[in-house]
Amino acid sequence: MLFSDTPVCAPTTFSCLWLFSIGSKVGDRDEYDRRYSSFPDTLKIKMKGMAKDMFYFGYDNYMKYAFPEDELNPIDCQGRGPDVLNPSNININDVLGNYSLTLIDTLDTLLVLGNVSEFHRAVKLVIDTVSFDKDSTVQVFEANIRILGSLISAHILLTDPKHPFGNVGLVDYDNELLHLAHDLAVRLLPAFENTSTGIPYPRVNLKSGVPPDSINETCTAGAGSLLVEFGILSRLIGDSTFEWVARRAVRALWKLRSNETGLLGNVVNIQTGQWVSKQSGLGAGMDSFYEYLLKSYILFGEKEDYRMFQASYESIQNHLRRGRESCNEGEGDPPLYVNVNMFNGQIMNTWIDSLQAFFPGLLVLNGDVEEAICLHAFYYAIWKRFGALPERYNWQLQAPDVLFYPLRPELVESTYLLYQATKNPFYLHVGMDILESLEKNAKVRCGYATLHHVVDKSKEDRMESFFLSETCKYLYLLFDDDNPLHKSENKYIFTTEGHVVPIDKRFREKQWNDLSPCEKVVPDQETSNGPFSNNSNCDRIPEERRYSLPLKSVYMRQIDHMVGLF
């Protein structure tokens, strides 16, 4: 049993596995080295083409069978919009707002793939056909990351004088995408009204505001992951309102963290400030809160954001992390981040969810590459076993707890970022495995379908917009070394929905003195250990390790055994 307090030699412990691995290596020494140590350029070109074809198979069929509806049903080859007959179906209605979701969410992916003409056509379609004056009740978080973030990203790329993708300016473009983004953000603002804590309601009706029957509970990620998009919008239009409400929500959540552990819970009552769910983890309900603390600092340079991230990261390492101290050295179970009680750090359950696979990418962004390597290897081992990531995986039972896989991008994102950090061919092999699994297990008549069951590979008739906006984008970028994003002298960052935004000095300049008349001035503190400082804390990967395994074979074998691969 992993992380057991009982000193027994269970199958997943290092000492037992060491004996197992020595015996198994007699006939297959360096099996992992042989498989992962090289990746020919011809194969890279083939995989890049395969990722491109995957995107266009989904995108072209969406445009043919589904547009202007929000999503494509890839099995029936039909469009899907909000479930108007069942308003309580939040699995659908939180996301689908009757505003051509998939087209908007995909805009910058078209540029990443180099298709300027289709990008221009898509932008014109959005300008000519999309309106947010709809009687649709949507989740604030989803509308923000999928719609608002994409509109802002596409606007910036259209008007960026540095033109990372070439001359992509559109004749007669008059900031229409920015105006649409502003209009949507105004319609989301009622979520921040009439809340005692400043933490927003989870849902708004785009016409009428917060529904009268709205619940007073929201998750930490949903309320605390608005700052990147709202902050950029504020700085683009010179109106502090949007950044102020988003930042107020982050600060309100931050004040509710445990005095004992420094951790936050998963679900909070926006009126009382009481935690409804005391579970603290890195997956659903919490993931992008931590992600946006760091990315907000990178974009805006607000030291407050980085201090919150540093404190959160320390609490995560102290209370969520289990396993041996070093990723690539020593004995014991491999590092893993578990779900704990926010007040005492005790393990609450024995599952992790697929959204947590984003965390290796965030570790890379923070410079903790070695730790990222180890955690990524665990999720990759689960993928190898099932050809997908189950929504929840029970690390104690070595079995899925929740069996579906909706084509999520988090493992691909972390794979891409680790490859950019290390240039190790291992991660190209991971990307190839993911590509081939998706082709084999998820491809249907008109696109790629959600896996209902990762074991028997039965499917659901849904292709979420993030498959095109993130999963395909990161797969393509993984194999495209010459992409303009990689060659540009300017630095870019991805939002939590995979939208490209530049790290630009104009976003570090505010056209207002204070975010709030009541805001206290925080003394300037050194952030020399910040992720983009001259004195970086990055764990640099030595050159001699670039073409060896990022994780030693014995540890890879340990993880594979731990998830039941053999």
Automatic annotation (TrEMBL):
Gene that this polypeptide is encoded by: EDEM1
SUPFAM superfamilies in alphabetical order: Seven-hairpin glycosidases (SSF48225)
Cell compartments where the protein resides: Endoplasmic reticulum membrane
GO cellular component: endoplasmic reticulum membrane; endoplasmic reticulum quality control compartment
GO biological process, any: positive regulation of retrograde protein transport, ER to cytosol
Organism: Oncorhynchus tshawytscha
EC number, UniProt record: 3.2.1.-
Record: residues binding Ca(2+): T496
Family: Belongs to the glycosyl hydrolase 47 family.
Cross-referenced Pfam families: Glyco_hydro_47
Name the record gives this protein: alpha-1,2-Mannosidase
One GO molecular-function entry: mannosyl-oligosaccharide 1,2-alpha-mannosidase activity
Main location: endoplasmic reticulum
Protein topology in the membrane: Single-pass type II membrane protein
